Queue: 2 jobs
Job 1
Amino acid sequence: MSTHLLDRLGLREAAGADALTTGRKTFVPVHLGNHDVTIATVLDEIAADPTLLPPRTGHLGNWEDIAAGRSGPMDFNTAICGGGHGYPLIYGFTRTEADMEGGDEAYQPGSLIEGGKRHTLALHSWDGTGFVRRDRSRALFCPLVQAEVDGELHPLVDLHWQRMQDLGYPFKQWAAALTDHAALVTDMLTLLLEQAAAQGRNQAFAELISQAVRLDGEVARCDLRPDNAGYLLDGHRYPSARALAETVLLTVRALVEPAEFFTRLPELPPVLPVMSLQLTNVLFALLDMHHPDAPPGTRESPFITHLHWGARAMAGCPPRRGGYLSRRSTVRSLRALTDPLTAHFDEAAPMAFVLLPAQAFMLCPPSTSPDDTEILAGLFATVRAAGPSAAYETTLGWLDGNGERLSGYLRSRFRSGSGVPADGTPREPAVPVEPEGFRELSFRQACGAVAAFEEVLG
């Protein structure tokens, strides 16, 4: 199936399918924002295969207004997950919003938002003897936080997860896929840690464990180094690579079984390892998260073709921003992980990571703004007539004469740093509408148009 899909998308050469087949390469990213594959082609392929559904990796937090189609810049989630083009795969290793930088300002997990109104939660974390209320001066690691509701403490993860279950979206936890394969993931991480120790390269550890979290919820970059047969993590010694790998899975399990995790908190080591984003991205593909409902034991061969809806950080929006996944330094790190995994584990295979830029759907106005739909249809006709590589410059020129015709809501989608609106402004529920000509755009054209919107309105 892998090769046939790449052939139908016209991406066989871009993905280096021959090199993946022979194992000469074990990881190749393909960013559709750099290719002339139409949106219609991709959506039709997804619709035609009942087992294929690319994940849209969103964060733990406030999805109520996203599901209602009134989340401003986050409406691309509505278009993808509500439209059946992908499913919401929830990544919970994020931090609460805070006065300092580093918290999740997009999904704002330290608050409850609905109807544009924000209610700030009272957050508690461990102080060594019990849970105490924390102020908003610093961001806290979500899996280690409890929120006070009606005088009782609830795991922050549970609080949001229960609310999300009422929205009708097919939410899945990234962490559950890992814990379902805990033995395999532990074996893989053990091998990678042992190889990192043998290399004597600090970056090799950062590619596996990027941060450490203390029991009070403070998370930061860490110092991890070998210590004879063991490992020192910010001064705390783990006796072996396997012991460290098992503790990595412990923090993952905190997202799936938070209540049980909190009962064990007093007996845990003072500093816990946090799995890196690089390893997370590898596991997205290796654990078949693009086939969320496939029968157990199915495996793509000779290589994996992983389709994934990436947003601002992961995919960016070429030509202005390419996202982190396709950077050369990231690809080097990912291959440093996939090379030994494919060599040592039958369950692993080389992978083509096909990145679908979710921000293309920012060009789909809500049903409450019909004038925007008509105006953007005119833009799309102009962009298509200008040719595949001219979308960015064409849209810049179009915005100079037409940008003010668009609604304030649509314009606000492209402001930098914006997330789910919490300004108290009432907005009617809506669904994203595809203007005429939207699906005929290539992903490269759509990304070029969005990049121009960000340049002018950001």
Job 2
Amino acid sequence: MAASRRRRGIGAFLALLALFAGGAGYWAWDRWQGFQRDPLAGLEAGDGYVVERGDSFARVLQKLREAGVREGHDLEWQLLARRLGAAGRLHVGEYALAPGMSARDVLINMRDGRVVRHRFTLVEGWNIRELRAALRATERLRPDSAGLDDAALMAELGHAGVHPEGRFLPETYFYTRGDSDLDLLRRANQALERALDEAWAARAEDLPLRSREEALVLASIVEKETGIAEERPLIAGVFVRRLRLGMRLQTDPTVIYGLGEAFDGNIRRADLQADTPYNTYTRDGLPPTPIAMPGVAALRAATRPAEGDALYFVAVGDGSGRHVFSRTYAEHNAAVREYVRRYRERFPR
């Protein structure tokens, strides 16, 4: 009887031990599943970290902790990384942390190199000084161009002896942290060359332009004269007709460009009379180089201008940015007087 009771006691103990072990195993398994799939607590939009070349997995975990990730033991992160094939395959780069991300999401991003992509927008009508200033202010780009003057910059891009103005296509370019600004400029230059080739290949017949380079110059003037998309072909048409007739272009943006950094925001009669290579009031034909970065629409307008008979244009004066187009000088003078009247109504002294 005593032996029987002892056996029953041992059996009950083993059953209890098995039940406890099973419960602990279930608890550990449930914790493991939750660690993989549950959103990490405390993450906010804008959080992130950078994996640098030579970082160990332990160092990356430390950066995650510094970024606010508290969940999981280091061993759990290591086991999950091995399970996902991420251990030893973490891509260098900048990574975002966002609300709702799980440990699994974080590791898959690093395994697959889903780095943060930043935007740089090259604005239509910028000149080379404005472009280079914007690049200098972009902290996540490596400033490899900073020590190069314009001539050295173009040589570095494979265009030695080419003036840099107008050679980069206005567009939004994506890059990752640590990319070289030279790589971005190279892509913008290649995009411009493709767009210019396409526009020149589709050009209208009998254009008074001898080369694609002259088309680029004209497009840059059109770009600076208007921000209204539908007006670009109209303004290009005015300049093309003037070139055919041997009339001077007489466009203020070229004069302003010729003044360079001396331009203080006001163009004066003396400026229009001061001869520079870019003064289209004192010199015939096109200026020697582009005066800004033209976009695709301006390139197309310069090579396929609108038909018509207008030889003059002036701003409406109502703040819309639109222009009045005139066929004769008398009509143009009347439009100028109307512009002055409207301007004075808007900005009384």
